Amino acid sequence: MPELPPSLLSLDRPGSALSNSTGPIIDFAPDASCLDVEGLSLAYGGKPALRDLTLRVPRQRVTAFIGPSGCGKSTLLRALNRLHDLDETVSRQGSIRLEGQEIHAPEVAVDELRRRVGMVFQAPNPFPMSIYENVAFGLRLQGGMSRRRMNDIVEWALEAAALWGEVKDRLRASAWSLSIGQQQRLVIARTLAVRPEVLLLDEPASALDPISTLKIEELIRSLKSQLTLVLVTHNMQQAARVSDYTAFLHDGELVEYAPTASLFTNPRLARTENYITGRMA
Amino acid sequence: MSLAEVAGFRARLPRGEGPWAWLAAGSVALSLLMLGGLLTLIAVRGLGHFWPASVSLVELDDGQLLAGRAVRELPLATGQGRERLYFTGNRDIDGHVWQWVAVDRIVASEQPRELVVLERVRYGDFIGRLVDVRPAGSHVQGVGGGEVAWAALQARLAAVDALRDERDDLQRNVIQPLVRQLEKDPGDTAARRGLAVANDRIRGLQDAMQAEVVVLQSVDGRRLVLTLAEVLRAWRPNAMSLPEKMGAWVQGVWRFLSEGPRVANTAGGVWPAIFGTVLMVLLMSVLVTPFGVLAAVYLNEVAHQGHLTHWVRIAVRNLAGVPSIVYGVFGLGVFVYGIGGSIDEWFFSDQLPSPTFGTGGLLWASLTLALLTLPVVIVATEEGLARIPDHQREGALALGATRLEMLTRVVLPMAVPAMLTGVILAIARAAGEVAPLMLVGVAKLAPQVPVDGEFPFLHLDRKFMHLGYHVYDTAFHGDDIQAAMPMVYATALLLVLVVLVLNLTAIFLRHYLRARHGALSRH
Amino acid sequence: MIKLFPVSSSTQSPRRHLFDRLATGLIAAGGIGVILAVLAIGAFLAVEVIPALFSGVLDKERITLSLTPLAWGTLKAAFWALVFAIPMALGAAIHSAVYMSSRLRSRIKPTLELMEALPGVVIGFVAGLVLAPWVERHLAGAFALLLVMPLGILLAGGLRWSLSSSMRKRLPLAWAGLWLVPWLAVLGLLALEVSPWLEAWLFGGDLRGWLDTELGIDYASRNALIVGLAMGFAVMPSVYALAEDALSGVPTSLGEGAQAMGATRWQSLWKVVLPAAAPGVFAAVMIGAGRAVGETMIVLMASGNTALMSLSPLEGMRSMAAGIAIEMPEAVPGSDAYRLLILAALLLFLFTFLVNTLAELVRSRLRRRYRRLGDRS
Domain ABC transporter spans what residues (chain A) (predicted)? Predict the structure, then answer.
């Protein structure tokens, strides 16, 4: 676990008295924010999914979004690399800035944005190609890369995803021949190969067995020295184990956002406590 | 309670499922029976045609003799006794090739070894005895009858075959190019000389082929003298052993597949029809595949998924159910008269009023069938695209792919089996479709195949022969339907085989596709 | 700890975006173009005919005179085709959806799919040149076959009850579609052997003459019954496939509910499953009707192509599709005859298109209903 930024330690805490207020409580003022979400509202075909959400994601830390299903945490994650663009029924207000630049600005190329903000999905989705080709996929899109350099990057990415040792002798085998856990790490390697600045993980371990889950969690911790990671998870223990900050969302709204340790040990709102203690599904 | 116990329990119930359940089961059995019957009929008759069946020499109670192949036997219309149909050949001597004989009237029937069957250029088969092989114009006894004559005939026929091949080769590779050369430049003396030499050579070959005659005698004693050039094949079915018969059968099948039709399509082979069908279908698939895939990709990946797209999808699906003849009318009105007429006015006005593209032809037929099968390809490809899970698309996008890159690198390769299925189904449908072709370009007999050595090599404006139309035309517009029936059966069998094989391929491909996507959607 | 790998910024971006936009535009344009070309068929037919209709070039009397017999022939052929096809197809669909063992079913369905693919010209040839002359010669035998088949099936069901239970287990209803085949084949041959004696006994040895003198029915060798049988054979597989889909799509909980209350499978089918699947079965029949109306080669080859307007199923007819196939190549473009034929094509197009659209709507509504039912259970 990294140390908490000093700015957080100096915050004064209002003791153990739980507040019943509904407005968001943001126990957090990061100085090095990577993503700034401001006043974001999102609706699917008129049905609101996110309401006036504002939060900052700190650079080179793991931030977890938790909350009951349908709370909008996955929607928020997909908004961060504009994957919701695919759905024509989505309407959006508010802004998201990546390193200070508005991602919805007309001059931003959406594919370039998605390269910078990579994403790993709930179910592993390797392409029906060889292991090598899966990792090289994003590199080939950019073109103009020598064979040697591509080999190097593929090896680096697989190593970074802790998969190299298991697959280095069968890079030409079909990606679908891997186990589910290996497939998910392959997908992470594939995403790392294009050198994103942010990695979004949408319940990356929910389809995996406990040992594979452990490996993924280790991987997440090892990656944060280089990347900003955002993790959506259902699993409170997982959020507590790997994340530095945790945001609790409910019904499309941000309820509480604080360093993980303080949110789990000392939630400020009754709603948060109810959720993390399992009194609210 | 186990399943078997449940069944046993049911069986002990006083009432069963009742008569209707049995009738329902019966309709499955009945359809299988009908399908099996149809296929067996076509297969047996189609393949049996090539079997060198034994020839019987029959003596009737009034002393009349006839030689022929027994074809079938039926009860007499009066209900007493049966009658038998013989194929007796000898159209030029007897004036007919079939004879019904009441079985009671047959005094003796045997199968003498010396009876020969000759396949001839004109008048169909001859059945009778071989008397002599001798030089033309001579009245002196030649090699004589019996085994000696048979051996001589075999040797001479092989020689004549070689001569015939040489003649055809000369015609195709020397004379035709020279004639075209002279059409362009009538003053070319070298070509003129070459042509004269070649024509002399051909005349020499013709004479050599007619240099000897074969003397034949029908079983009732009438004589017939034929030049060797008129005889294609000779065999003695009663003297053949089983392996020999099988060899002859294979040879017959091969000749059917590789030769052109003779005697107004009632004999010979169907090679031009096979060629025409395959070429037309190939052209059609070249046209239908890119357009069908394009439309499917647009509908499924690019178009806004609103009400309009929904209705367009239903409309396209329904066009698959519009009768093929309507497509034929469209092809005739738009392609042949509309576009073809305009092309003629612009580019071939010197040949008007005889139309070049303004009449049915290979190009228009392929285009019409492409339009007819477009819905099949669109629907199959769309199904394939819809089966690809969305997370594959998102995976590509999340790596920074543009929409085009996502389509070409991930989505389309995954949809290839579905596209193939669609194209194969389209080909199967097009291969069996006849009605629209009758309007846009099929021909009863097209001596010129649409591909040859003449520029531009592929003649899109030519009419072509087609297996399905061959079946229709031979069966309905010939003079002697009975004589043509074996050919029709064989052609129908070939068509059915082609269509069934294509459909089976599509079924297996679809099966493979489902299995693969099943594996994919498991996790 | 993993070392950072140096990033090389991509330089190709603008070209890629241009390419992407261009290709998307091309796909859209091409796709719309292809779809318009396919849909142009209806437009072409309408454009050719409607002005002539309104300007009075084609007067009503002429249209009625020339198209009525063809329309009559079309409907007559389609009617007899459906008379043969619907009971067979629905019976087969019910049997394979409810009774058939799943192993047999996975074989039978593709087999019938292959049956659908048989070219019309082959079926037409067999019907017109083999079946028609044979039936003409063996009229009594043919009628005996028609009678023996259903009776033989019932007999098989009845005989099975009198068998010992071990024999009965070897002939289960689930496999009846298969083991009835040899039984029916034997019965059919038997019927053919017996029929001449029956004919001699009942009709004085000449059924055809008897029909003519006693009932005044003229028997044409290529008649509506032959066409109906052949076209029924061609239409049956598609009706079967759609009806089977509709029946086996009914959530199993519905039928099982009825069986739990002691109904036989037939009763639960009749009272519960069939009403639920009725729209799908209806759609299947509609699509079959559309195919029967448009089928060209079978009618062309198996009917006499005489434009008669008789009710008798033993006489021939001429259908619109066959009329178009025969006359269109000779019609001069722009002439009245040509326009009349295009009008016939337009009618065929509209009929099949509407029927299919109706069927498709019914089917999609049914699919939604099944999904809801499936959710609730």
Answer: 35-276
| Residue A3: inside a domain | no
> A-chain residues within 8 Å CB-CB of B410?
127
Strand order in the sheet with B212-217: B223-227, B212-217, B125-135, B116-120, B231-235
In a domain, A142, yes or no: no
How much is the pLDDT for A99?
A: 85
**Alpha-carbon distance C219 to A19, whole Å?**
97
CA C170 to chain centroid, in Å, comes to 34
| Confidence grade of residue A176 (pLDDT, cut at 50, 70, 90) | confident
| Cβ contact, residue pair B402, A111, below 8 Å | yes
Residue A51: CATH number of its domain: 3.40.50.300
Instruction: Mark yes or no for CB contact A141/B397 under 8 Å.
Output: no
- Looking at the structure of chain A, the number of domains it has is 1
Across the interface, of A112, A180, A190, the residue whose CB is closest to B523 is A180
* DSSP symbols for C272-319: IIHHHHHHHHHHHHHHHHHHHHH--HHHHHHS---------TTS----
The verdict on a CB contact (< 8 Å) between C184 and B492 is no
In terms of Cα–Cα distance, which of C152, C355, C365 is closest to C279? C365
Query: Is the pLDDT assigned to residue B493 strictly greater than 90?
Result: yes
Note the pLDDT of residue B373.
Answer: 92
Which of A171-180, B134-143, B338-347 is least confident?
Answer: B134-143
Each residue of C193-241: pLDDT tens digit?
A: 888 777 777 777 677 777 777 777 777 777 888 899 999 999 999 999 9
Q: Is the peptide bond before B456 cis (omega within 30 degrees of 0)?
A: yes
**Tokens at residue B84, please?**
């038998």
Cα–Cα distance measured from residue B292 to residue B420, given in angstroms and rounded to the nearest whole number: 11
pLDDT in tens, B394-438: 889 888 888 888 898 889 988 888 888 888 888 888 888 889 988
Asked if B471 is an interface residue toward chain C (Cβ–Cβ < 8 A), one would say yes
Residue B162 near residue B170 (C-beta atoms within 8 A)? no
Distances (CA, A) of B522 to A129, A187, A233, B390, B412: 18, 17, 22, 14, 21
Place of tokens 């003629």: B344
- The label of the residue with tokens 């029976």 reads B33
Task: Look up residue A25 and give its two tokens.
Answer: 């409580």
Domain ranges of chain C: 22-57, 58-376
Q: Has residue C301 got a pLDDT over 90?
A: no
3-state secondary structure of A125: coil
Cα C19 to Cα A70: distance, rounded to the nearest angstrom: 38
Output the CATH code of domain C58-376. Answer: 1.10.3720.10
Contacts of C360 in chain B (CB under 8 A): 314, 317-318
Residue A223 lies in a domain: yes
Q: Nearest Cα to C179, choosing from C207, C159, C201? A: C159
- Structural contact between residues C301 and C128, judged by C-beta atoms closer than 8 angstroms: yes
Q: What is the pLDDT of residue A104?
A: 85
Assign C315 a pLDDT band (cuts: 50, 70, 90). Answer: confident
Taking CB atoms and an 8 Å limit, are C1 and A143 in contact across chains?
no
Strands across the sheet containing B56-60:
B98-102, B82-87, B65-75, B56-60, B106-110
Q: What is the pLDDT of residues A91-117, one digit of tens each?
A: 888 888 888 888 888 888 888 888 888
Where helices occur in chain C by DSSP H, the ranges are 13-55, 60-94, 102-117, 120-125, 132-137, 139-162, 165-170, 176-203, 207-210, 224-249, 252-260, 265-268, 274-294, 297-302, 320-327, 336-376
Task: Assess if residue A244 is contained within a domain.
Answer: yes
Higher pLDDT, B514 or B126: B126
Question: Closest by alpha carbon to B215, among B124, B312, B140, B304?
Answer: B140
pLDDT digits (tens, 9 = 90+) for B452-488: 666 666 777 777 888 898 888 888 876 677 778 888 8
